[in-house]
Amino acid sequence: xxxxxxxPLAGARVATRLPAQDLERARxxxxxxxxxxxxxxxxxxxxxxxxxxxxxxxxxxxxSPGTFTQMAVEVRDVDAVVAELRRRGVxxxxxxxxxxxxxxxxxxxxxxxxxxxARGERGAWFRDSEGNLLGIGEPxx
Length: 141
Hints:
Number of domains: 1
CATH topology: 2,3-Dihydroxybiphenyl 1,2-Dioxygenase, domain 1
Radius of gyration: 16 Å
CATH architecture: Roll
Strand content: 35-45%
CATH class: Alpha Beta
Strand order of the largest sheet: 5-10-9-8-7-6
Order of helices and strands: EHEEEEHEEEEE
Largest sheet: 6 strands, mixed
Structural class: mainly beta
Shape: globular
CATH superfamily: 2,3-Dihydroxybiphenyl 1,2-Dioxygenase, domain 1
């Protein structure tokens, strides 16, 4: 059975869930550093809206491995966003791998996901207060 166009998840929305060992610490980080405030709160969780998408920080006894991008945000001007986040105290990751290196916190990435219609991406990564690795990307057309 081919479910590529009409599968059970075809009309679903995707919502990211990020673990937080300390929700109050995370709330302060997201407010002070990222300028985001929860749009809803429940015991053990904070719901945030970013553009027309949502993500949740949930209370967790486990820790994030922080070894891969757990959530990424697409922006129009990665240089301006990185500069503003740095001004707010966000530290960006330095990456130096074969074929993948950041310069002043931003990497030039060849290739991109076909659905974005871009030839590449410029990206930057940082960790939130809970160790989650978050990315910021700007498609290069």
